[in-house]
Design goal:
alpha/beta, Rossmann fold, 2 domains, disordered N terminus, 5-stranded parallel beta sheet, about 250 residues, elongated, P-loop_NTPase
Length: about 250
């Protein structure tokens, strides 16, 4: 049902995976009078998509995942959603209001959780009310995943906002997360905690950059014959922080 890349269970201990799992459980197990739209938000690179993919895979065929695009209209969004809910069935000639009814019926009968990634685009393109329509008909959990200011954007839509549960913020990569990522991506060279803490500070907790730099550390360690590397041994070597290094003009 949900066409997303599987992730092995080894990401389970990561902080943001646990936060998303808690949000999914809270919405699925909520009492009938409680709101069922969730929001998982945070800075780019914090691992929101990894956490979402893991949660969706755990639900198997009770999850449907749509990643919005910056150019999508409401019609394109609904086409994409129904492409996940009913692959191989062509609804493209139907008007949007019909597509909403069809999709909501499938969500309801399948008792599914709908994950909408890059939900900022849904707000910015002006069709966020579709989410409220789907929820009102299906009464199934819907989780919006987006950037750090997504909850503020959603406050402008009162009829949607008062159907939302408490937002769940994605958190910066922790030392425990970095240790676990080391076991996943840097299994040939041991990295001391003081170097991991230095890395976390340099990349400001961006999980994606932590993972990328761990690979660089391992390559450097293998080139130098290190079994273990700490802050002192690493020395003044630079990490990839995303900062652009200015080129000097030669006279």
């Amino acid at each position: 049902m949900t066409v997303i890349t599987p992730i092995v269970n080894t990401v389970a201990p990561l902080t943001n995976v646990a936060i998303m799992q808690e949000l999914v459980g809270r919405l699925r197990d909520r009492k009938p009078h409680l709101p069922g739209i969730g929001c998982f938000y945070g800075f780019s690179g914090y691992g929101k998509s990894i956490a979402t993919t893991y949660a969706a895979n755990k639900l198997d065929d009770r999850a449907v995942y749509v990643e919005a695009r910056s150019t999508w209209t409401k019609k394109k969004f609904m086409d994409a959603l129904l492409g996940e809910l009913a692959p191989g069935v062509n609804y493209r000639s139907r008007p949007v209001y019909d597509l909403i009814e069809i999709a909501a019926e499938k969500l309801m009968t399948g008792r599914m959780v709908l994950f909408v990634d890059e939900a900022d685009y849904v707000v910015d393109r002006g069709y966020i009310e579709i989410i409220r329509d789907l929820y009102e008909i299906a009464n199934t959990p819907i989780i919006l995943i987006g950037e750090e200011d997504l909850p503020v954007k959603l406050e402008r839509y009162e009829r949607l906002h008062n159907r939302m549960a408490r937002p769940a913020p994605a958190l910066p990569c922790t030392l425990d997360d970095a240790r676990h990522l080391t076991r996943l991506y840097c299994d040939k060279v041991e990295i001391a905690d003081d170097l991991l803490m230095h890395l976390l500070a340099e990349v400001t907790g961006c999980t994606r950059r932590v993972a990328a730099n761990l690979d660089d550390i391992q390559e450097e360690g293998l080139r130098n014959g290190w079994d273990k590397v700490d802050r002192k041994l690493w020395g003044e070597r630079k990490f990839n922080t995303g900062a652009v290094v200015a080129r000097k003009r030669h006279s």
